[in-house]
Amino acid sequence: MFVPKVRWRDARRWEKWEPRVINGTRYAFDHLLDFDMTLSRPPRGHLPALRIPIRVVFDCHVVTESTELHSSDNPRADASSWVDSGGRLRRFNPGRYIRSFRLRTLIKGLTEENARCYVASAHNYMVYEHTTLEGSSEYYQVYFDLYRPSGEPRLVMYVQSAYVKDHPTAASRRHAKPFAMLCAEKVGAIPTKPKGNKKTP
User: Which of 71, 76, 62, 36 has the alpha carbon at shortest distance from 161?
Assistant: First the structure.
């Protein structure tokens, strides 16, 4: 049986997003169910015509925060607990839950003209939304892995985490990349360029 090297790329580990009663309140997670979107572009410059289906999947990190407890502490006895794809125990965060309702719109926006994301780490890209609330800035940062499963024509965007910071992360100030170009690279429509500011010799 094929086992992906990157743990969250194993579909057997993906969250099912069933409703939960947490501290007496019933929470629905329908907005975090997997969904499909399509990136479409006419031919332009060095980019060929694109029509790329993308399956979007959400990790439990978008509604939870880390805890010092371990998954061996029987987390299913408490509806406020999740075990992530790496086996770590996490706790429900109401603030992250409320903001998670913005995720679909933010991610679908990446398929629009001139949408950009930012290079982060080895299996990681980032997009963010900047809002100003009562004179203070809020940066809702969303990290994702984008990959093409073996033998499939579509891409999978695995949304790894989403949280608020009061200043933009370093990745958002450099290494911007058109999302359409990233998708074209992942499906093999154009050669992959090195991440960051690295130049090919």
Answer: 62
Would you give the DSSP letter of residue 32? G
CA angle 171, 110, 155 (to 5 degrees): 95
Element (H, E) at 104: helix 103-108
pLDDT tens digits, the chain, 201 residues: what are they? 344 578 888 888 899 999 999 999 999 999 999 999 999 999 888 778 999 999 999 999 999 999 876 555 555 558 999 988 888 899 999 999 999 999 999 999 999 999 999 988 767 899 988 887 777 788 999 999 999 998 888 999 999 999 998 777 766 666 889 999 999 999 998 887 765 544 433
**Cβ neighbours of residue 123 under 8 Å, at least 6 residues apart?**
6, 145, 147
Question: Position 105: which residue type?
Answer: T
Say how many C-beta atoms besides its own lie within 10 A of residue 154's C-beta.
Answer: 13
